[in-house]
Amino acid sequence: MTIMFNKHLQRPADDEARNERVRFSDLEAGYSGRPVLRQLTAHIPALAMTALVGPNGSGKSTLLGVLAGVIDATSGQLRYAEGRPPAFVPQRGAVGDTLPLTARQTVEMGRWNERGPWRRLTRQDRTVVDSAMERLGVHDLAARQLGELSGGQRQRVLIAQGLAQQSDLLLLDEPTTGLDPEARQRITALLTDLIADGTTVVQATHDLAAARSADACLLLRDGRLVGQGPPERVLTPAALSRVWQPS
Ligand SMILES: Nc1ncnc2c1ncn2[C@@H]1O[C@H](COP(=O)(O)OP(=O)(O)OP(=O)(O)O)[C@@H](O)[C@H]1O
């Protein structure tokens, strides 16, 4: 699927396109009166982990929002390879504490794309929800109110909701921030398994070790792309110190 804004997207060669889950070109986006992303041209490799790296406010969440379809680009082009609609797991702070939902109801919302909001779930939906909660180790929290959970527990519930969408494109905003080492390891292993099973994963992260173990990196500064490619090429000491220098 191609979403066109107002520019022409150069088509990649066929063999390149086969390895790309998403491609965007001259992408611009922001909030009312605040442009954020400027002239981004890059691709997200299929069946791989891409890390979005950059200082606070560099535009990582905004880019994820655009890829997820929750923020409209103002110009440029965005093309998705064939596949299911993306599953988006926002930062846990972006989800209200006061939502009157249990952990299980939160994960069940991951089935709404298939079933429609508040519709009765099928047995298969319930199996998918159970399995997602098991994989994130949150099944014992099922009856607890989302707002009563610790930050790390809530984070894992939100990732389980993303998993329950059974998308082949999973977009995660800082999925391991604030998690204890065991939970972090569990999520890292889970993401590796998902990729092996046919999912493309994009995560915004401040964890440089996680970014270094990704297959590809997009490095952002002030809404501009200042590096893309394999982490060992992009996350060099020189590039990192340039990006983290005060502007
Ligand atoms: N809802 C919003 N309305 C207006 N401006 C916003 C909104 N959300 C983010 N911004 C601004 O957009 C810019 C990019 O923010 P964004 O959240 O995309 O950065 P980020 O790289 O994800 O940052 P962080 O590492 O802190 O999560 C910042 O200047 C921010 O203040």
UniProtKB/TrEMBL annotation:
Q: Which PANTHER family match?
A: IRON TRANSPORT SYSTEM ATP-BINDING PROTEIN HI_0361-RELATED (PTHR42734:SF5), METAL TRANSPORT SYSTEM ATP-BINDING PROTEIN TM_0124-RELATED (PTHR42734)
**Keywords recorded for this protein, A-Z:** ATP-binding, Nucleotide-binding, Transport
User: Which species?
Assistant: Streptomyces tendae
Q: Is Signal one of the keywords?
A: no
Q: Which Pfam families match?
A: ABC_tran
Which InterPro entries does UniProt cross-reference here?
AAA+_ATPase, ABC_transporter-like_ATP-bd, ABC_transporter-like_CS, AztA-like, Metal_Ion_Import_ABC, P-loop_NTPase
UniProt record similarity statement: Belongs to the ABC transporter superfamily.
- The question of whether Disulfide bond is a record keyword is answered with no
List the SUPFAM superfamilies. Answer: P-loop containing nucleoside triphosphate hydrolases
Name of the molecule in the record: Zinc ABC transporter ATP-binding protein AztA
Q: Which residues form the ABC transporter domain?
A: 22-247
Q: Which GO terms describe its molecular function?
A: ATP binding
